[in-house]
Write a structure and sequence with these properties.
GO molecular function, one term: nucleotidyltransferase activity
Pfam family, one: Acetyltransf_1
Oligomer: single chain
Helix content: 25-40%
InterPro entries: AadA_C, Acyl_CoA_acyltransferase, GNAT_dom, NT_sf, Polymerase_NTP_transf_dom
Keywords: Plasmid, Transferase
Strand content: 15-25%
Protein name: GCN5-related N-acetyltransferase
């Protein structure tokens, strides 16, 4: 499903997924020699990719070779499976009931045969993913296929793939049984080892049929959309040819996935909308994925987002969900001002969520060598205990496992061997205020600048999350560190020692902490 339209204008078409017309470039890709101009689809943003993603469930298909009912030659079809999230309300008939809700084995088989005929032994793997695999399949849904090849297709091979796909793929809007095909092809060496943005070797999508019929050929080009797309294939792709996708593709780092998804939001907000429904749903899906790390169906993402929105911003999303399910007529009359306000609200939430995704490691020089500082570093409770003991503290088992779920984030600093050298936790109030807690530096590595480095990164990430103030309290001997090296300024503050006023004990990271050791 191909969707990335901004919400301001009135949407059209209640039963299609709104193909976006990407740019047709006049330039030639590397290695392109003769023939028609290539099609560049970089304008197809990550937001649009998120808009076509499908249900993600804990019990999803593992996609092992040899167990696929859609493998070429199989006589059957795959019915629409259970989708994450609720469907239409019981007893309410949808306008799409009675329509075809399955994927034809003959159509998937035709695409696989075309790839083999054109590319031969260069085809390493072909994977079915999207609605056809996990549910949420609608009459307007695309047939999403992903191919991994061993070498880049030639210009002649690209033209042959386009010619064949024009015959195999259904059109927008859908007529008959053939579904619109979206086929993405990558060269394995361009995506493994993973790099961002990776290069897409070829892509066919019905939103560019007019250009293809005029002779345009898809170009090879860097494509940020490969980050969410490969994530979907790795999680849920069903092999039609070759091994499971994890044998050919590397995982996409969370930071790259977040960067690609968030990059699609400005286009959703800025461009005139041809399909308001899908723009509204896509924003909710991007937000949901950044917050949860899961890729859900449109309706499931809407159900997740609705209770998290202020009440005044819920009507556009509720209406978009119902129109998508076919239980409401898609009319945006009178809702467009609310759509714009909804879009601004969710875009702000997306920006904040993206800031909380683990960042790529920041490598910085300190006395004695370099360290890697990582926001939300995956620090285990045993590692934390070892760090506390290194400076004479007595750690409380399980403290870090209990605390980290309540944090805005934290920073871990490691040396080249991976040894944890420094740490600081960041709590917050859910709004403007963040709080620096429990800074620690390994006893053998103090006074080298490690404490400064973790505080600097913590402050930067709190700022990116939308916080205005970062608070800290400390022992008097650390004034120079916090006011000098870290940039804090003096302010009046108060403190109550609760055990001495109300009895009881306070569980903390360590019994004899040494928590304010010299960073």
């Amino acid at each position: 499903m191909t969707e990335s339209h901004s919400p301001p204008a009135q949407g059209t078409g209640a039963d299609r997924d709104g193909p976006e017309r990407a740019r047709v470039g006049a330039g030639h890709p590397p290695g392109h020699t003769t023939g028609h101009p290539p099609v560049h689809t970089a304008g197809r943003t990550a937001g649009r990719t998120a808009g076509r993603t499908t249900g993600h469930t804990a019990g999803r298909t593992t996609g092992r070779a040899g167990e696929n009912p859609l493998a070429p030659g199989h006589p059957g079809s795959l019915p629409c499976g259970p989708c994450t999230g609720p469907g239409p309300a019981p007893g309410r008939r949808t306008r799409s009931q009675g329509a075809s809700m399955s994927v034809s084995a003959s159509q998937t088989g035709a695409v696989v045969r075309l790839l083999r005929e054109v590319l031969g032994d260069e085809v390493a793997g072909v994977y079915l993913y999207g609605s056809a695999v996990l549910g949420g399949l609608r009459p307007s849904s695309d047939l999403d296929l992903f191919a991994v090849v061993r070498s880049p297709p030639t210009a002649e091979q690209r033209r042959a793939l386009v010619a064949g796909l024009l015959d195999v793929s259904g059109r927008y809007p859908r007529r008959g049984t053939a579904r619109p095909v979206e086929l993405t092809v990558v060269v394995r060496s361009e995506v493994s080892p993973w790099r961002f943005p990776a290069v897409r070797a070829f892509q066919y999508g019905e939103w560019l049929r007019d250009a293809y019929e005029r002779g345009a050929v898809p170009a090879a080009e860097p494509d940020p959309d490969l980050a969410p797309l490969i994530t979907m294939v790795l999680r849920d792709g069903v092999p039609l040819v070759g091994p499971p996708p994890g044998a050919l593709l590397d995982p996409v780092p969370a930071a790259d996935l977040a960067r690609a998804l968030a990059a699609g939001v400005p286009e959703l907000l800025a461009e005139p909308a041809a399909d308001t429904r899908n723009a509204v749903l896509t924003l909710a899906r991007i937000w949901n994925t950044l917050e949860t790390g899961e890729i859900r169906s449109k309706e499931a993402a809407a159900e997740w987002a609705l209770p998290r929105l202020p009440r005044e911003h819920r009507p556009p999303l509720s209406h978009a969900r119902d129109a998508h399910l076919g239980i409401a007529e898609e009319r945006w009359d009178g809702l467009l001002p609310a759509v714009r306000a909804y879009a601004r609200q969710v875009a702000a939430a997306v920006e904040r969520s993206a800031a909380l995704v683990p960042a790529d490691p920041w490598t910085t020089e300190v006395t004695g060598g370099s360290i890697r500082c990582v926001w939300r570093d995956p620090i285990g409770d045993e590692e934390m205990g070892d760090l506390v003991r290194s400076h004479g503290g007595d750690p409380v088992a399980g403290w870090w496992d209990r605390v980290k779920g309540q944090s805005l984030g934290w920073v871990g600093a490691r040396d080249a061997s991976g040894l944890l050298l420094g740490f600081v936790n960041v709590a917050w109030d859910g709004g403007d205020h963040a709080f620096l807690l429990d800074p620690k530096t390994r006893g053998s590595h103090q006074r080298r600048g490690i404490g400064t480095a973790v505080v600097v990164l913590a402050a930067a990430r709190a700022r990116a999350a939308g916080c205005t103030w970062l608070h800290v309290d400390f022992r008097p001997e650390l004034r120079d560190f916090y006011f000098g090296a870290c940039g804090f300024r003096p302010t009046e503050a108060g403190l109550i020692h609760l055990p001495s006023t109300g009895g009881g004990t306070m569980g903390g990271p360590e019994r004899d902490s040494g928590a304010a050791e010299d960073p």
